[in-house]
Design brief:
The protein is of the alpha/beta class and about 600 residues long. It contains 22 helices and 11 strands. Heteropentamer. Part of the GPI-anchor transamidase complex, consisting of PIGK, PIGT, PIGS, PIGU and GAA1. Interacts with PIGK.
Length: about 600
């Protein structure tokens, strides 16, 4: 405190920070990236452990015997699905009633803002079927959910068969203290959202404590993959992942996360690279803000949920459906013991493997090292603005240096940048019909191309801004504007990182260098090229290719471009259908902030 309270020492500290500002910023950036890459090194991570005492032991005896019968039920479901041309509602109702469940159906319909060309749907109509197993030893105050989506074709029929088999087996047990809801939802997330948001009193279960969504790709399963990423980057309580891993270890089921097996050679280059790849896949999925399974929508209601997917990819292993049923039985028996919601373990974490995790206290310093660069640049700008201009030999100061910027010169870029962001957010949906009439494109193509067009039109902002200004901008004017933009970006990235660390960190990696180096005095062509490369749109394009490389599914530039357009359309759909915040965040805040730095580069 003495250093800051003494005026002389404070001036010396500020002088040191401003004199070494650029070297310190470079060191902070490199340290932040190095810190983040070091998070995947096993000695720097924590081993997973069970924090919830009620689930601390796996000493339960799993006895589920009906794996083959579940597969037979799945084949019956497949036959009736083909016959009905969709969800076999009547057959499901009769089958669930025969297993002693209270069965309810829910019809829903939803019109999309524009057609979803990936799944070829626009007006969505469907029916959810769910049966409730009432707890014999407790009132109807709490519930658990087991869901299986009814997907087109022959996929996931095995999951529905196993769900019905578990319903019959659970019905004969007397130790349940919570209602168990067995849900078969149609049209994936749209049906799940309809089921979550609407529940009449006549078919109400208890307050949902936890939920699992089951997906099986074939009769032969080699491993079980855990999917955690939910809407807007939300994650379930870490104890849910720990519970899955503990029972996989006990029963002997091969388990993966991000489709990656766990390796023990962490001290080798290949082992470390594998951990980095697994962690980066989680970062990319979380940053997308979209739910990566039917469980993703439960998390917004503070319901701990995850998706478990059966994978047939590791040929030397094999797991039968009976074993998978026992895995689920063990997990639900432990969840049945909960006396309160899962809350004792972490909600903010990254996982380089199922046995190790990185807590918020370990990964936030990586972001902090990037964010401090913005504060250092803001301090440097503040000192420059507060320092009086140098006098000439005859004692006269430069009028250009002494003149203070007008409010209009700073306010105009702010207003125009955000109006451009509003246009980017609203015009693609509103102008799709006009675009379809004027150009030979589909509705989805019209939305995406309109978004790209508005985004590109924002590059003309400096010229439009200066036409509105009275006179040319001053030297002090761009410094004031950059000070506002740097502080704006610091607050924006900080708030984003608190909600979705992965998204905030990726944006910081690209936007912080832009905020640090851009001035009107740098080479225009080269700097403009760098700004465009580090813009939000190009960051998304690079992320598409990087994600495919992480999945070991590299694509050509043409395929990557088509994926890029698909990602844009899905991001807009996810916002209007499920409430994903990534699209409005980029359009209304991040893009206008980037436009401020673009305006500074072309300041006159």
């Amino acid at each position: 405190m003495g250093l800051l309270s003494d005026p002389n020492r404070r001036r010396a500290l500020i002088s040191l920070l401003t004199r070494l500002n650029s070297p310190i910023c470079v060191v902070c950036y490199m340290a932040g990236v190095a810190w983040f890459m070091g998070l995947a090194f096993e000695p720097f991570t924590l081993r997973t452990y069970m924090s919830e005492n009620a689930m601390g032991s796996t000493m339960v005896e799993e006895r589920f015997p009906a794996g083959e019968r579940a597969l037979t039920t799945g084949r019956e479901f497949s036959a009736h699905k083909k016959k009905a041309g969709g969800m076999p509602v009547d057959w499901l109702v009769k089958t669930m009633q025969a297993r002693g469940l209270e069965v309810f159906t829910q019809r829903f319909s939803r019109k999309l803002p524009f057609p979803d060309e990936n799944k070829e749907r626009y007006m969505v109509k469907g029916t959810n079927v769910y049966g409730i197993l009432r707890a014999p030893r407790a009132p109807r105050t709490e519930a658990l959910v087991l869901s299986a989506p009814c997907t087109p074709g022959d996929s996931n029929n095995q999951a529905v068969g196993l769900l019905l088999g578990l319903a019959q087996y659970f019905r004969n047990q007397i130790y349940w203290a919570k209602d168990i809801i067995f849900l078969v939802n149609e049209h994936d997330l749209i049906g799940m959202q309809a089921c979550i948001t609407f529940s009449p009193d006549s078919c109400r279960g208890g307050s949902i404590q936890a939920a699992l969504s089951l997906e099986l790709s074939s009769d032969v399963i080699t491993s079980m993959d855990l999917v955690l990423e939910g809407l807007n980057g939300q994650l379930p309580n870490l104890d849910l992942a720990n519970l899955f891993y503990a029972f996989c270890q006990k029963i002997g089921v091969l388990c993966t996360i991000q489709g990656k097996l766990q390796r023990n050679d962490w001290d080798s280059v290949s082992g470390y690279s594998h951990s980095v790849q697994t962690m980066m896949l989680m970062v990319m999925k979380q940053a997308s803000g979209r739910p990566w399974g039917d469980h993703g929508l439960f998390l917004r209601y503070h319901i701990e949920a995850a998706s478990i997917k059966g994978i047939n990819s590791f040929r030397q292993y094999k797991t039968d459906v009976t074993t998978i049923g026992r895995l689920l039985e063990g997990m639900y028996r432990k969840l049945n013991n909960l006396l309160e919601r899962l809350h004792q373990s972490y909600f903010f974490y990254l996982m380089p493997s199922l046995s190790h995790f990185v807590s918020i206290g370990y990964y936030m310093p990586a972001f902090g090292l990037l964010a401090v660069i913005l504060l250092l640049r803001a301090l440097d700008l503040w000192v420059q603005l507060a320092t009086p201009p140098p006098r000439t030999e005859d004692g006269i100061t430069d009028k250009e240096q002494v003149s203070s910027p007008g409010v209009l010169s700073v306010l105009t870029p702010l207003v125009i940048s955000h109006l451009t962001g509003v246009a980017l957010y609203t015009l693609p949906i509103q102008f799709q019909e006009m675009a379809v009439e004027q150009f030979p494109v589909s509705e989805t193509e019209a939305v995406v191309l309109t978004a790209i067009g508005v985004y590109t039109a924002g590059l003309a902002l400096p010229h439009n801004t200066h036409r509105l200004l009275s006179g040319e901008g001053t030297e002090q004017g761009w410094r004031v504007l950059k000070l506002v933009a740097v502080l704006y970006l610091a607050v924006l990235l900080g708030c984003t990182a608190l909600i979705n660390f992965s998204l905030g960190f990726i944006l910081a990696l690209t936007l912080v260098p832009v905020a640090a180096f851009v001035t009107p005095h740098v080479p225009k062509v080269l700097s403009a090229f760098i700004l465009v490369i580090l813009s939000p749109a190009c960051t998304l394009l690079f992320s598409v290719f990087f994600f495919q490389e992480l999945q070991e599914l590299p694509v050509s530039f043409q395929e990557g471009w088509l994926l890029y357009l698909s990602v844009i359309s899905q991001g807009i759909l996810d916002h209007f259908l499920y409430g994903s915040l990534v699209y409005p965040l980029i359009a209304l805040l991040v893009y206008p902030c980037w436009l401020l730095f673009w305006n500074i580069l072309f300041w006159k």
